[in-house]
Design goal:
eight-stranded mixed sheet; binds 1,4-dihydronicotinamide adenine dinucleotide; alpha/beta; binds 3-hydroxybutanoyl-coenzyme A; six-stranded mixed sheet
Length: about 700
């Protein structure tokens, strides 16, 4: 035994407690401790059965993910399989008592027990696929034996948690324990003494026939190909489960182990593990420590009930926080509330929410036409039209209407937070909360730090983002903040490529094949080409003379082609907004390019991807160097959650690391020679390339320096 696993006695039952905070991961020492505890139980004649339980907030969250990096770097390979066989072959019954989560290796451990009992709020699942791997300790073999092939395929390919009550229905958990879990598990164990203990691996009754399974597996493969395009692990999980239906348990485990190793050593898994830790890393802000006091956010107000304001109000209501929703006139408010109702009705129709849930949420949103009730709110999110004069006017009004200490946040996507804060007497309470459209769907929340935003206000917004189901990333106050600032050069290159002779669909297709959710030109059509056009007109005076600027999108806008909203943009759209190529666009762009003297040529998909993605990377490197993002991984998390960048590539900065920064730098230098000034390599990129370092190493240096 060791200090990670304790054994105590409750009369004739051994209680084996796993105590490896924070989540009882199966780090080195834990499997050994469990194995020794099982031996101790079997060797003690006074003990009749055992209960395995987790200390703290959870049962076992799985293998220790940090160990995977060590394994792929050449460290020792560890397998849980022998331990699980050892538990299953125990002469005395073992009851697994689950609270919190039994995920990944945690569920595999639980399935090796003879019985599983759980608290009603517990969750079980095989989320390995989210890390680019498959269950590697017999999960693909034992799970189908307990829940059937179809459910096992669903759990291993989607990786979603299953609530304990559902796990009981599927036979994965034997009983729910209301109240004290340990007491219930002990009673369950006493009852099991003297009865034959079922071994999961011996069970075959749910494995189904080959004919049934062939149909299930073929269906699953085609769903995965569509919904998890480009991901290898879900297909590997299906292969492993299939092996389990055709081979013996031992042979199935061997097949699983081979597939697990292939996945673990893949670039996809390395990227997804980077994302797992990255999503947690972004919550860590060097000068705003975890213990920074947070302010209460129990009531909020949203100003502006348009596209964003309505969505933001829904986000708060969905988290159970009452919201006042203000607009200037009844008509605007009615439109705003109408859209919210319609959105909720769609969610009910799609089965996402129940009608009762929606009714409750709608009760939490109170439409108002003035600031009278604002004195009672803890926070306001402003989402009025984008314009500095209006924003300042609204913030001055909010400053008068809200109580001292209330947070005043702006959803601006381009404006200077410090200038907005200057319109109030409390710049320390002002911050940017940049939601992404549609606000009730998109996970990203850029939290924009003004130069006077207080640490309490920052900590509160970071914590609030989690409560709202968002991933909050702190960014600095520069034009476009992080995400949109990088998106500019990315979309600029997409336009340049068309102006140089690439077809519109070829540009989008290359980036979709790269893994992006949508191509850059189709994204422009969706968001509205006029949005960027208006912004560019406002900032035209900042453009350097003689530096090439794209023209195609501005010209399309001049022709009234704003994208989906006008049914014409880069593409043409039918009344159901289905896109098709528009030959008129090709003709127009070719004509404009000829007038501008831009030579036309064949452009490969490789060049399309390099130009668009390296434009992101180069701007990302500048942002990093200028300190507007805390770490490269913060940029990655922004791109994965706000811009449809493929998670299995880890984000733009991680992707650049995998290509190699020397190669990325050289390619950017080539582009600079051909296309000029706009491609000047970011000094940080040049330095890292010369030092043969990565952005990930840069992040580590930052942590050490902090
Ligand atoms: N290994 C190592 N560290 C882990 C971990 C794991 N399996 N799970 C969580 N952690 C760490 C987190 O990095 C975080 O560390 P930090 O505080 O230093 O940032 C800390 O534990 C707390 O985690 P969260 O912030 O995520 O806490 P929550 O309470 O929000 O969530 C959880 C808890 C639901 C358990 C969530 O952490 C989770 O989903 N964990 C991952 C589960 C998983 O993927 N398991 C499968 C692992 S692979 C496997 O088991 C392979 C097997 O088949 C052999
Ligand atoms: P919108 O035009 O859909 O809605 C603006 C709303 O504000 C309108 O209902 C208008 O009546 C109301 N309004 C104007 N002045 C007001 C006042 N003084 N008091 C109360 N309400 C007032 O605009 P949208 O798209 O929702 O944008 C709002 C903000 O969010 C802008 O700052 C924009 O830059 C930002 N944003 C927009 C995104 C988008 O995709 N639309 C994405 C992220 C941020």
């Amino acid at each position: 035994m060791n200090n990670l696993v304790r054994v105590s006695r409750d009369n004739d039952i051994a209680v084996i407690t796993i105590d490896n905070p924070p989540v009882n991961a199966l780090s080195p020492g834990v499997p050994e401790g469990i194995g020794a505890a099982i031996d101790e139980m079997n060797n003690d004649p006074a003990v009749k059965a055992g209960v395995v339980i987790g200390a703290g907030r959870t049962f076992v969250a799985g293998a220790d993910i940090k160990e995977f990096g060590k394994m792929t770097a050449g460290g020792p390979r560890r397998s849980l399989l022998p331990l699980l066989l050892h538990i299953e072959d125990s002469r005395k019954p073992v009851v697994m008592a689950i609270h919190g989560q039994a995920f990944g290796g945690g569920l595999e451990l639980a399935m090796a027990g003879h019985y599983r009992v759980a608290s009603p709020t517990a969750q079980v699942g095989q989320p390995e696929v989210k890390l680019g791997i498959i269950p590697g300790a017999g999960g693909t073999q034992r799970l189908p034996r307990l829940v059937g092939v179809a459910k096992a395929v669903e759990m291993c390919t989607e990786g979603k948690p299953m609530p304990a009550p559902e796990a009981v229905v599927f036979g994965l958990v034997d009983a729910l324990i209301e109240g004290d879990l340990l007491a219930g598990a002990l009673a369950f164990a006493r009852d099991a003494v003297g009865k034959p203990a079922p071994k999961t691996r011996m069970r075959t009754e749910k494995l189904g026939t080959d004919t049934d399974n062939d149909a299930v597996l073929a269906g699953a493969r085609s769903i995965v190909a569509k919904r998890q395009r480009g991901l290898k692990a879900p297909l590997a999980a299906i292969d492993a489960i299939e092996a389990g239906t055709k081979l013996s348990f031992e042979e199935g485990c061997q097949a699983e182990a081979k597939l697990f190793t292939e996945c673990l050593f893949s670039d996809q898994s390395k990227a997804l593990i980077h994302v797992f830790f990255g999503e947690r890393e972004v919550a860590k802000i060097p000068d705003v420590p975890r213990e920074t006091p947070v302010l209460p956010v129990n009531r909020v107000a949203v100003v502006g009930s348009g596209t964003m304001g309505g969505g933001i109000a829904m986000v708060f209501a969905n988290a159970g926080i009452p919201v006042l929703l203000k607009d200037v006139g009844q008509a605007a408010l009615d439109v705003g509330m109408g859209k919210i109702r319609k959105n909720y009705a769609n969610s009910v129709q799609r089965g996402r929410f129940t009608q009762a849930f929606v009714d409750e949420r709608l009760q939490l949103i109170t439409p108002v036409l003035n600031y009278d009730a604002f004195s009672a709110v803890d926070m306001v999110v402003e989402a009025v039209f984008e314009g500095m004069a209006l924003k300042k006017e609204v913030f001055a009004e909010l400053d008068r209407a809200c109580r001292p200490g209330a947070i005043l946040a702006s959803n601006t996507s381009t404006l200077n937070i410090d200038e907005i804060a200057g319109a109030t007497s409390r710049p320390e309470a002002v911050i940017g909360t940049h939601f992404f459209s549609p606000a009730n769907v998109m996970r990203l929340l850029e939290i924009v730090r003004g130069n006077k935003s207080s640490k309490e206000v920052i900590a509160t917004c970071m914590q609030l983002s989690k409560k709202l189901g968002k991933i909050g990333v702190l960014v600095g106050n520069c034009r476009g903040f992080v995400g949109n600032r990088m998106f500019g050069p990315y979309r600029r290159e997409a336009q340049f490529l068309v102006e140089e002779g690439a077809e519109v669909e070829a540009v989008d297709q290359a980036l979709v094949e790269f893994g992006n959710a949508m191509g850059p030109l189709a994204t422009g059509d969706l968001a509205g080409l006029d949005v960027g056009w208006r912004i560019r007109k406002e900032y035209r005076h900042l453009e350097k003379p003689g530096v090439r600027q794209p023209f195609a999108e501005d010209r399309l806008c001049e022709l009234g082609r704003y994208g989906q909203k006008t049914l014409k943009g880069w593409y043409q759209y039918d009344e159901n907004r289905r896109a098709s190529a528009d030959p008129e666009v090709t003709t127009l762009v070719r004509k404009w390019s000829a007038e501008a003297g831009i030579a036309q040529r064949e452009i490969s998909s490789e060049e399309i991807v390099d130009r668009c993605i390296y434009a992101l990377v180069n701007e990302g490197a500048r942002i990093l160097e200028e300190g507007y993002a805390l770490r490269a991984v913060d940029i990655d998390i922004i791109y994965l959650n706000g811009y449809g960048f493929p998670a299995y590539r880890g984000g733009p900065m991680w992707y650049a690391d995998t290509v190699g920064l020397t190669r990325v730098y050289q390619r950017i230098c080539e582009f600079q020679q051909k296309h000029g000034e706009l491609w000047a390599p970011a000094p940080l990129l040049k330095r890292l390339a010369e030092e043969r370092k990565t952005f990930a190493e840069f992040d580590k240096e930052q942590v050490v320096a902090a």
